[in-house]
Amino acid sequence: MGVLMSRRQTVEKVQKVSLAVSAFKDGLREQPSTRRRAEAGGTRRGTLEQAVQEGEEEASAGPSQPEESSTSKAAWERLRDGRGVEPEEFDRANRFTPPAFIRPKRELHDDEPPDISLEQREQVLNDEMCEICEVWTAESLFPCRVCSRVYHDGCLRRMGYLQNDSAVEVTETAHTETGWSCYYCDNLNLLLTEEEMYSLMETLQHCKIIPETCLTLDDFLHYKHLVHKQQFERPMAEAQEEQAALQFSALDPDKKGHIEWHDFLSHESIQLLQKLRPQNALLRLLTAKERERARAAFLALDQDSDGFIGEGECRRAQHTWFRKHQKETPSCNVSISHVGPMSESSPASSGSGKSQEKTPLPTEQEEARTIDWPNFLRENVAYILAARPNSAALHLQPPA
User: Fold this and answer.
1) CATH code linked to domain 124-186
2) Per its record, what are the GO molecular function terms (predicted)?
């Protein structure tokens, strides 16, 4: 008779095997270099000048170099594996084992257009048991606004994914229209396949970007210039540089003068998805909750119910989709949802002046072009995905 294992036990077992395999690979990786040094030492004739030069190089390197390389290596490994929290960063006593993230794989039919009907609504149901402990406790479960997973706040704390400030955010927003994204959906980098992730890592290494560090405006623009020249073999135009500066401001909503690493990584991840995958493949990444919000948004914009909206309304949808919650805004009787665009006739559309300033006014040419439901989804799918993180940053700034 077989032994039944819970999902958590299975994950722990897989992680132990992964650690053993990683250690074995690291050992194999170190052996050739040692063997090459021994062979070089036995065959090369050493001179006094070479010995002095090597001694000076070792002295100039200093004792901190191995430590720095080890720290950098660990940061690159966390980036490759999609780990947001490293076990060494918090006390392991009374902690659950963090999950082993498995990157998705592209399927043969991914590029084919998915069947997402406007008339056929989807029934959105949350899971009944906590994703971590697999226990049902009714009202104390906090749902994710993107997927169907639910969590206990205590389980999230024991996983290390819920700290002091974020714990308040989860309890206050998880059951509201604002919503809260779980640690799977909050990390846009987990949408990348292994091949796409290695492509991004090569770009970051080529541009001398250090993982888990903040980027200033100069760093961000320098990176964008290098990426553009690498891709198109020509310098970035002035208009493109201005757009990059606007994107930096969108990633720095608090005007701190720098952008956090996870916001930069989310922005680069969604940019890479747009570059490497067709829109049909991106549409397959949408969850049932996101598709339902898109339906509600389109129907709200389609005032005459003819199945078409103006291009200007579609542009406004891009600018207002998942508008980040303004914490300083006082509560009122009208519930202002930030999970989808609103029509001008909606009672919630009379928001703050700051929000209206960011939304471009449509031109007559834009209003002349009409957009149906399939095109609305294709043109907005990247902004729907970019709205998943809990951060106040706008990870994909629509063009002005």
Assistant:
1) 3.30.40.10
2) calcium ion binding; transcription corepressor activity; zinc ion binding
d(CA 3, CA 149): 27
**Phi, psi of 257, rounded to the nearest 5 degrees:** 90, 0
Closest residue by Cα to residue 268 from 196, 161, 185, 183: 196
**Residue 318 CB contacts under 8 Å (≥ 6 apart), including other chains:** 379, 380, 383, 398
Domain positions in the chain are: 69-85+192-262, 124-186, 277-323+369-399
Whole-model pTM?
Answer: 0.71
Which of 224, 239, 249 lies closest to 358 in space, CA to CA?
Answer: 249
The number of beta carbons lying within 10 Å of the beta carbon of residue 284 is 16
Six token digits for residue 34 = 């040692």
Closest CA to 12 of 127, 129, 154, 159: 159
Closest CA to 375 of 277, 303, 298, 323: 298
In Å, what is the CA distance from 355 to each residue of 25, 263, 342, 360, 392? 52, 21, 12, 10, 14
Question: Distance (Å, rounded) from C-alpha 215 to C-alpha 210?
Answer: 9
DSSP 79-91: HHHT-SS-GGGS-
State the pLDDT at residue 62. 44
**pLDDT recorded at residue 316:** 80
What sign results for the dihedral spanned by CA atoms 356, 357, 363, 368? negative
Judge whether 205 and 195 are in contact, CB under 8 Å: no
| Coil, helix or strand at residue 235 | coil
Q: What is the mean pLDDT of each run of 10 residues along the chain (400 residues)?
A: 46 52 50 44 44 47 51 78 55 58 88 90 90 81 93 85 72 84 92 94 93 94 94 91 94 94 95 94 95 91 88 80 46 35 35 40 60 92 93 85
Contact assessment for residue 359 and residue 319, using Cβ atoms and an 8 Å cutoff: yes
